[in-house]
Request: fold
Amino acid sequence: MKKSNVAMLIVFLALIPLTLFLGDKLPGKGYYITGVLIIIELSVPFFMAFEKRKPQARELVILAVMIALAVIGRVAIPIPHFKAAFAIIMLTGIAFGPEAGFIVGAITAFASNFFYGQGAYMPWQMMAYGAGGMLAGFVFIKNKIPKKPWIMAIFGFLAVVIWIGPLLDTSHIFIMMPEINISTITASLASGFPVNVSQGLCTALMMLVFGKPLLEKLDRVKQKYGMLEDENGI
Amino acid sequence: MGFELCHPAVNLIYFVSVLYGMLCFRHPIFLAISFLSAVAYSIKRNGMKAVIFDAVLLPLTSAFALYYSTYNHFGVTVIEQNLIGNSITLESLIYGAVIGLTVSGAMIWFSCIYSVFTSDKVVYLFGKASPKLSLFLSILLRMVPRIKYEAKKINTAQRGIGRGINQGNIFSRIRNCIRIFSIMITWIIDSLSLQSESMQSRGSLLRGRKAFSIYRFDNRDRAYVIAMFANITLTVMGVMLKQTEIVYDPKIIITPITSVSYLFYIGYAVLCLMPLGLELYTEYRFRMARETIT
Amino acid sequence: MEHFRIENLSFYYPTSKDKKSLDNVSLKIEKGEYIVLCGKSGSGKTTLLRHLKTVLTPHGKRTGEILFNGVSLNDTDNREQSSKIGYVMQNPDDQIVTDKVWHELAFGLESLGCGQKTMRSRVAEMACYFGIQDWFHRDVAVLSGGQKQLLNLASIMAMQPEVLILDEPTSQLDPIAASDFLNTVRKINTELGTTVIITEHRLEDIFPYADRAIVMDSGRIIADDTPRNIGKLLYEQNNPMFTAMPTPVRVFYNADGDGDCPLTVREGRAWLNKEFEIKPQIAEIPCKNIDDDIENPALSLKELWFRYEKDTPDILRGVSLEIPKGSISAIVGGNGAGKSTTLKAICGICKPYRGRIKVFGKPVNKFKSGELFKNCVSMLPQDPKSLFVKSKVSDELAEMTKDKNKINEVTETCQITDLMNNHPYDLSGGEQQRAALAKVLLTEPKILLLDEPTKGMDSFFKETFATILNKLKSQGITILMVSHDVEFCAKYADRVSMFFDGQILTTETPQNFFGSNSFYTTAANRMSKHVFKNAVTAENVVELYRKNKGGTV
Reply:
């Protein structure tokens, strides 16, 4: 495992939960501070992924395009709980690694919420969206699992239903529920299940339709400009 | 040869203060001054278009006043009772009209702002705050029309082989749409990476970026700023002397109008009419200068 | 003093591990030199140029060293490189970053963090030097291609670079804008002493002024000499790059001329004058007149009138044209005259408000939706990129048809068998054009419309492209192309039509058409007009030269 991968896991497992926990105590619009803090924490492993060199402008630009696409994928589809954003975040993770996947996911949540209205759930969403990108990056690391559309579609569905979805539902438990006990947790997870399945289906569909062409485009850029890869090739 | 030739900072300060006045003063005289000035200035700048725009806003304003008074029933002067027994009051009717006028006045001011503030000026003002931000804005301003142009070009090319977005049956149309979208993404990624190379090649990532401006702060700007601040001060004094205060609920109560009040009214009116005056004056000077030549 | 020194530079792209893109290149560039780098597409020119600036250096493995002003380029800091090494790329649109001309001019200075006063005076200087004052306040989007590229150059020159590197800067421009641009580059070199390193297809505008010409082939430098000597070297080696040499050079060597090789049309005329002090006996290329009555034309346009918007001027003002079956016809003419619009009208993309278009005798509006493009008409757009959808050339073709045999046939015709696994965007201009042509051919058109097919193509690719067109013609396909490329039309078209002021003025054979023109004609004709009649291509001149010399010597 690369150093940046380890750093990524440390940030995800320790720093972000801590930030979320402390951020919860901030009054008023404190969630903006939490959100920005999360992005700053994420940028550490992200910049580590570039190893010894500085990120080039074009690399940041391409991630910006992915973020823009993901935001459009969330905002422009008028069907509720049927958004393309997760698929695009996961594809970024698959193409450019867990660090890039996480940061793109987090910023997508941050940016797209400006269309839906920000709230205390925003930092949680950032965490959950980003975790989706990160998971995709880890699962498909080093080409061990073939990047076939149908495999990605199955992965996308499962990732939404048992990973991103429950993470989002957890945020409801912490924010909405008056007290935390087994029954509120199960109630919250159960009520989120149909929504997650619908989102998962959309993600799988998007992976089937756009997975291959989009991944091809990203792979080409990666090869051409040597984005986010080791000096000795892939 | 009008207000748009003034320094962007002057434009900004002016419009911010006028908009503030428009949105905050509920006093009918101040409201009327600001509203009428906005109408006059918008017509001066945008001509026939502005006349239509302003004319459409007026009935909307009265409609809003009626709508407002049927849902809000504060006030003591009852005009009539409606079907379900709620009373329509003069106070709420007038207050509705005031809000309507405020909103439509602000919209008319905005139409003037659009015609004065070109994208250059916005980029310049951002550049003062952060050169990087202004560069970003400028890139966006170039990217949007480029993407439109490119999409059109690709559609034309695809039509040339019978795969445009309006060729074939509904399914092939959808497919063609997706194809063009896909080409656009490839193009955007490719073109943006080239563009960022060109930026980097010209040192965009160096520290200490400064923003270039083509604007100068000249004597006319100075004169304008002095006059503007004189009138703003006068208006602020009026605010401090409670000249702008008015109560609509439950009864309309205005601070008594004295002869000093007229001084504040004049100050505010001059403030609101300044750009119009400037433009008329410059045009007059221009015509005079032309006449003396020939 | 040396400006750049490249020592044993080798480079591999990560995708092609076995093939070196640069192979042991060593080169010295003196201060103030004007160097032209030539070579076929894919010979490593761009790769070499990109190595001269760290931020543009491609990703891959390299050995060797590059010194700039005696210091290793890697140790030269970014600030110094940004201002001292200017780099102009191919596509004018992709390089412009901001939305206003004045902002773009100041872009580099903003990055360097110059003071407001310095910026103002430098920007003013540049605007005057490059003649930008008139469009200083405009939006970049309304500029023409030539203006955009000039703006790129000016924006770079504002940083006062010591070296100017240009990578095929005129490949996307029309000939007049290209020649203006190259003159400006020469002016910069002679007036300011800026070192210029340029790669370019249009050697005619550069060769006479360059100090050195360097020829590259498969990543190696195969020749490095003055332009006057380089032609001989290439001719003796029988190198395909010889076809890219300016017309006078090609005529001179192909005719086995003696003495100094002429580089310009003026020198060429002087040389021919000396050779033919007595009037030549055979002084004319025989040519037939064109048939005015065409039976069953493949395409007939009758008095087309068209405008884009209700209140814009007419673009087409009564275009009439008839194209016989199985011929190659060319429409030439100035920029923005409406040539491309004519092609669009034939495809039904633009609808003329007056006049009639008939395809094989059937009015175009009688075709049902989509029917026109099935085995009938197809257009190759100016920018071949806008046709590509997939990530491999083979997928591009498979998208059009399921018939494997057809695909094989087309790939062979277009000579893209080797390119099938590449990404279409990674191909060179000429290769892209051929891949796009293959894609268009899979609709099995009977009439093929080409919009500026030779744009961005080097001379070598042009010949390949021409053989493809001739093959298609022999299969009975009617070809109509619109082009700025006078030389190409003169050499390969059967009929040339002149487009001017929204109309087609004349239609002639290339010999008659260019032979009777004095300005709007080929270099070969300008060079030989005073001794030969109707010799419009280098081959024509050589043929007449040999016939006469064979008789008189």
Residues 128-201 of chain B form one domain. The first helix of chain B runs from residue 8 to 24. The mean pLDDT of chain B is 86.
